[in-house]
Amino acid sequence: MHRRNLIHLLDRYATPFIEEAAMVDKTRRFVLGNERCFDRGLAHGHVSGSAWVLNPRRTHVFMLHHRKLNWWLQPGGHADGNHDIAAVALSETIEEAGATPRQVRLLSDEIFDVDVHTVHATATEPRHTHFDIRFLIELDDREPLDGNDESHAVAWVPLHQVMRLNNFRSTYRMVRKTRSLTNEGLRPSAARRIAASAPPRPTRIL
Chain-centre distance of CA 151, in angstroms? Predict the structure, then answer.
């Protein structure tokens, strides 16, 4: 069953945040009840994958100023039928950061955060729900990253300033989780890769 791996990830995932625990349960029910849960064509909602991207020192978060939404966000996107959501998060990071596969490292195969949110209707898509599965990814902030045309700008944002750019509750959770990270707290991922104080300074503006 193509949904089995995600169900197992959700079953293993535990969060101290009450509102997130409710979203984990909601996501699990959605996945079990919708065989096409990874398909963007499922109009009322679908699973998406995103990445909370840290530098090696865990002091900065990679964020992009989304051109369409006009928000500062973490990399992420639709699964488009891919049931390997960690791979989706990795590929979206490579694409949206303008990185190469060798630069991107999955820090854990386990879920880092789960968020369920509404996406408002557009000219091409009705109002629907994203069941977003987030993974923890590392990029080297010493290497140049140019982003792509989906964003106005990309930036390495100091952890203590992330909430100035994005004050969503899910962002608050991920900042809190980052502050509590230790090397022992990360479940090994075998360094999986795809062979695939001042305000943040954008590294690219279009």
Answer: 15
Encode pLDDT of 5-62 as tens digits: 999 999 999 999 999 999 999 999 999 999 999 999 898 899 999 999 999 999 999 9
Residue 108's domain comprises 4-205
One-letter identity of residue 175: V
Residues 31, 23 contacting (CB under 8 angstroms):
no
Q: How many domains, the chain?
A: 1
Which residue in this structure is represented by tokens 């629907």? 128
The pTM for the full model equals 0.86
CATH number (domain holding residue 47): 3.90.79.10
